[in-house]
Design brief:
By secondary structure, this protein is an alpha/beta fold. It is built from 29 helices and 17 strands. The strands form four sheets. The protein has a seven-stranded parallel sheet, sandwiched between helices. A six-stranded parallel sheet has the order 3-2-6-7-1-8. α2 packs across α3 and α6 packs across α9. The chain is globular, with a radius of gyration of 29 Å. It starts with 16 loop residues before the first helix and ends with a helix.
């Protein structure tokens, strides 16, 4: 007996109420038939919770036990609400209200406002950020664009946790939040924001919930009218309920208990927005007569993926961990999760892109593959690697790197500094290209140390830091490069990333991947400081990071790859360590106090992953120790005589130009000038000799090796071969 994950586009409506129950497993059937009193469904990832609760509603409606108009199902996103309505229609239960908390509250507020207050409902403020900016200005507090966004988020958190402006500093201290500004300043801005809203007769989205709660508390006649309308409530993703949403739910219910909640404490990853699993974990205490059903049959992932997911939670601590669910896969066995260690971030990205190309060639659709990372600033190197590999991709929950506001602003500033040249006073003390870039970007928010906490300020810094690192890498590859050269490089990179988005590999943060699933998932950048993130200081924050990784693992149906890099850039010090969360599961590691078996998955080493002790690189002409990256690629000093075949070099350049044009990418994406020079000096005669040249990795050897060796052998490529 299985629970389908996907249905056909036009499924047949079940003929009867009993037919609605067909195909449900025993636990799902128990959920579907428990139609009276409080019901708590503890549903692990991939266990068919949406299927269970939609069939529950449909069975009640089709059996005549529930009237469609008397049921209110609430969830947290419009996408989830729409999916629920669609499934209910397919099951013959149209007419059931499936909405988000805000949508349901707004509908009630609009209907009852004239009766409860009189007149028209105040205008709804679609975007509160402009009013927050004005509030800060009136308080004589200056906020940049990113601080403004973070302060706005803090106000939203305060409102959903029912914290008034004067209590905000104490609430922040108690919750151990990393506030983006001094808490007393945010308290002032918050108070002024509320005052301006009252003066202008506008409300925000949090007010929709607050005002609905206020009306239902003060007007018992209106509360009774809503309770006569809705007799039965279903709440999905109950672990994400905020105190304010719980208060509204209690008022809808009154003294009744026809409530079904569904959730998983191990998937609580939004506590920074006010979500808390306490309501889910305390449900049986509040409702002693509740029916509790646990869904643990995982229909999404293979036994190998499920084993790793269970292993992650076996090491968890805290209250949510005490209620963890041990998943049992219902799928046929698949490949073991892979654990790959790389020497540096570019190697990790290239290795990931190479493996993705292999999966696509094996028949896995690009749209069924995802690369998941902790923060959006990590996307750039994967965008570039996938573009270099000719793999289409799409970003979810973030702008493309070169389209981010801070990156565009940085580009404008760098372009202006390049035009000004020596006339720009910012560059007076800058001796080389990286220091010039750092000087320019310091005016845009870059600092030598990252800002504390999370949010937009941190994301902006990460984007600018990525540009600083790019300048450093560019200088190592092209000694003597100017700011103008770097600006041209940035333009080329931006142009190279215009990949199609249809059926592309998904690039997404772990938070934005919640509720989604793919055939193949790559979890990248799994190092201490990124997973858990640096600013996760308390035990509770670290455990939420573990749950975030658990969510990432459980997105995978069949293929799962986990990877990390020992250094940031090529040649950098290998100071990083893989995340502690994989201790006891990745081969060669142990976990202290683990309460479950670790994964038996295999391990592979990425390009340069196994670091070997090497002697210094020596010039093959004069024997001098080489330190410059370009010289190390050539294996000689820049000033030492070259035995390069000039004609071969020009033929290689001409061939490279043709390849770049066909691929729609900059020439350096095929091979850099230094790599072509090294090839022209070495004149390799076979793949082994060609692969020994720095800059000719496995992917490029597979893609271009035949052509390059033919050119080195003096053969002429015909047009057909060149196009291939």
């Amino acid at each position: 007996m299985t629970a389908a994950t996907h249905s056909s586009l036009f499924p047949q409506v079940p003929e009867s109420a009993d037919a609605v129950l067909d195909g449900l497993d025993p636990e799902q059937r128990e959920v579907a038939t428990a139609l009276h009193g409080p019901v708590c469904v503890l549903a692990g990832a991939g266990t068919g919770k949406t299927r269970a609760i939609t069939h529950r509603i449909a069975f009640g409606v089709r059996a005549g036990i529930l009237q469609p108009s008397s049921v209110l199902a609430v969830t947290f996103t419009n996408r989830a609400a729409g999916e629920m309505r669609g499934r209910l229609r397919e099951l013959g239960a149209g007419g059931v209200q499936a909405r988000t908390f805000h949508s349901a509250a707004l509908r009630q507020l609009q209907y009852f406002w004239p009766k409860a207050v009189g007149g028209d409902l105040p205008r709804l403020l679609e975007r509160k950020i402009q009013l927050v900016a004005e509030s800060a200005a009136r308080c004589r507090i200056r906020l940049d664009r990113n601080e403004l966004r973070d302060v706005t988020s803090e106000i939203e958190w305060a409102k959903v946790t029912q914290t008034v402006p004067s209590d905000y500093p104490a609430a922040v201290a108690k919750s151990l939040r990393d506030a983006p500004r001094d808490s007393s300043e945010i308290s002032q801005i918050y108070g002024m924001y509320e005052q301006l809203k009252r003066d202008r007769a506008v409300i925000d989205f949090e007010d929709v919930l607050l005002l609905t709660v206020g009306i239902l508390q003060d007007r018992h006649d209106i509360a009774d009218q809503i309770r006569r309308q809705y007799h039965h409530f279903v709440v999905d993703e109950y672990q994400d309920v905020s105190p304010l949403q719980q208060r509204l739910l209690d008022l809808w219910l009154g003294d009744r208990d026809n409530l079904c909640v569904v959730g998983d404490a191990s998937q609580t990853i939004y506590s920074f927005t006010g979500a808390t699993p306490d309501h889910l974990l305390n449900f049986r205490t509040r409702h002693p007569s509740a029916t509790v059903v646990k869904l643990v049959r995982d229909y999404r992932s293979t036994p190998q993926v499920v084993h790793l997911a269970n292993g992650l939670l076996s090491q968890a601590h805290g209250r949510a961990a005490e209620h963890r669910l041990e998943l049992i896969s219902q799928r046929d066995p698949g490949p073991e999760p892979s654990y790959t260690e790389y020497a540096d971030e570019p190697a990790e990205a290239e290795g990931t892109a190479r493996r993705i190309r292999e999966l696509i060639s094996e028949g896995v659709p690009a749209g069924q593959i995802a690369v998941l990372y902790r923060i959006n600033a990590q996307s750039e190197v994967y965008e570039q690697a996938l573009a270099d590999a000719g793999v289409p991709y799409q970003l979810r929950g973030a702008e493309r790197f070169f389209e981010r506001q801070e990156v565009r602003e940085a580009g404008v500033a760098l372009r202006g500094a390049a035009r000004a040249g020596g006339n720009d006073s910012l560059l007076d003390d800058a001796e080389d290209l990286p220091s010039q870039v750092r000087a320019v970007l310091s005016t845009k928010g870059w600092t030598t140390e990252p800002p504390a906490g999370s949010g937009a300020v941190r994301d902006r810094w990460e984007s600018l830091a990525a540009l600083v690192r790019l300048a450093e890498d560019f200088t190592r590859a092209r000694p003597g490069a100017t700011l103008t050269d770097l600006v041209a490089e940035l333009d080329e990179r931006a142009a190279a990333q215009h990949a199609p988005t249809v059926q592309g590999v998904t690039l997404a943060s772990l938070h934005s991947a919640k509720g989604l699933e793919w055939d193949a998932v790559f979890l990248v950048g799994l190092t201490e400081g990124m997973m858990p993130i640096t600013y996760a200081k308390t035990d509770e924050q670290v455990e939420e990071e573990r749950r975030l990784l658990y969510v990432g693992v459980t997105r995978a149906r069949f293929h799962l790859a986990l990877s990390w890099a020992l250094a940031r850039s090529p040649g950098g010090r290998a100071t990083r360590r893989p995340t502690r969360f994989l201790n006891g599961m990745r081969p060669g590691s142990t976990a202290a106090g683990a309460r479950g078996a670790g994964s038996q998955g295999g391990i592979e080493r990425g390009a340069g992953g196994r670091r070997k002790r090497r002697g210094p690189a020596l010039c093959r002409v004069c024997g001098k120790t080489l330190t410059d990256a370009g010289e190390m690629k050539l294996m000689r000093c820049e000033d030492c005589p070259s035995n390069m075949d000039e004609g071969l070099y020009e033929r290689l350049r001409e061939w490279r130009a043709g390849q770049a044009k066909q691929l729609g990418q900059p020439a350096y994406c095929v091979f850099t000038d230094k790599t072509l020079m090294a090839i022209a000096e070495a004149v390799p005669g076979d793949e082994r000799e060609l692969s020994a040249i720095s800059g000719v990795g496995g992917r490029k050897l597979d893609r271009f090796g035949t052509d390059v060796l033919a050119i080195c052998a003096g053969q002429e490529l015909d047009e057909g071969e060149d196009e291939d």
